Amino acid sequence: MVENMELSSLAIVPLALGLVVAWINGSNNAANLVGVVVGSNALNVRKALFIASILSFIGAISLGIYVSTTMMRGIVDITLILDRNTLILGVIATFLSALLWMMISNMLGVPMSVHACVIGGLTGFGIAIGMEFLRVDTLIVIFVAWILTPFLASFITIALIKLFNICKRNTQRLKVFTISTLFLALFIPLALTSLKVAAHYKELSVILILLSLAICVSLSMFFYRSLSKKLTMVDPSIYERYVLKVLLIVSMSSMSFSFGANDVANAAGAMAAVMYVHGVNSLEALSICISMASIGLALGVFFGRVKVIEMVGRKITVLTPLTAFTAQLSASIVMLLMTRLGLPVSSSMAMVGGVMGAGLARGLRYMNYRTVIRIFITWFSAIPITAAISLLLFKLLSYLI
Fold first, then answer.
1. Buried b (16+ CB within 10 A) or exposed e, 329-364
2. What ranges do the domains of the chain cover?
């Protein structure tokens, strides 16, 4: 009985640390979600953070299970771990190493990928207990996704900017561009959520997809009609002052949903592993921990301060309302696609990629390559550093406890 009580007490530590990770993750990434919207004066900080926190919570609850499953058992095979204490100490070491590197990246002013920190920590734990516990194949797929994410977001941003430049001198084309991007920003999150529900209720799949389509068409038409008067004149200043502000708010909403859907796994996956080794069904463990981490993530976003946006919004390239919108929309699209594939990618990776595309669309001389290289080095150095810290912490905790 005493042993069970000790295990229960020890299990509270990684669960509490997981909530801290979720909170800090939300706080750090608030800049990626609201920075360009606030900077363009489309919304004030408090309103933007409130909307972002609500949509991050909805995204986490509705689609968070995909990436959380990967983080729970796709990196370290928890089914092979027979001692519950070993897993609990491993998760504690993982979260502590992630928190330490996140603090360092904050001091450096670099937009850190929390996924990189947590996955690095899990890798160190896996190495500490034996390579047979580590899912190297999953890690390789994740690394490939990390490399693809910023470049895919960059490519979509360039394509959208080029498309806008083709459409901007013709009112009808500009209307088509506006309503198409509105529809895209609204449809992808809703369609992916519907597909998840449809997987459990296959008889409703067609109805759910059609319903998503109808809702998005209705919302797109609503926004379009409210903006139609501003589209009667092909005037860049009018378009930027009125239309792009609405588009920025919609893309911010899509980005916030994407962020919640993917980043909740940073805390929820490892937390669920702790509950799983205590006999809780894996699906139930994931549901409980996603709910807990979603609240921490959303509160972190709401109380977040826009710190790292200086690096993302100004030091890679100069953003205009158009390039800010296309960068954010591209980032949200890539993140949602990666989320549906169950691949943990960071909003920082996607957003930096989108901003890179905005610079490249204007020309190579508009890119600050030194800043981009610095960001990438910090991201990828997080893996070996957090792995080493996690390994040492796990060994130390195992010796002490």
1. bbbbbbbbbbbbebbbbbbbbbbbbbbbbbbbbeee
2. 24-166+253-400
